[in-house]
Amino acid sequence: MKQLPRSRFRWKQLGTGLLFVSPWLIGFAAFVIYPLVYNIYLGFTEFSGFGEPTWIGTDNYERLVRDDLFWRSLYNTLYYTLLAVPIGVVAALVLALGHELADQRDADLPSGDRTTVGATGVRALVCIYLAT
User: Which of 65, 92, 95, 101 ranks highest by number of CB atoms within 10 Å?
Assistant: First the structure.
């Protein structure tokens, strides 16, 4: 078998790698990059979904900053993200750790009790969700 020069071999490897990665790159560009860029563009236009978008500059964002509902929604989102999510994660981890420690101590729990311990984590998350 004839050996390719080192630089040519590297280019061949690069081409093979790009060939394998290209479906993911195409999907990422089509389903992430394009919608993101298009939505940023639409943020600077007035567009009802029909017809052509009309360029209005930063008017949408100026109106957004003056809207009380926006600020309330932002507050609720930050509140939920910074409080409810970490509390739920910590509660689930504590329950999972307690269940693991019970297993390590060879606690012979009947299967119904194991279900109850596992359901407690789900119940805690549902309660946190309903409380917020």
Answer: 95
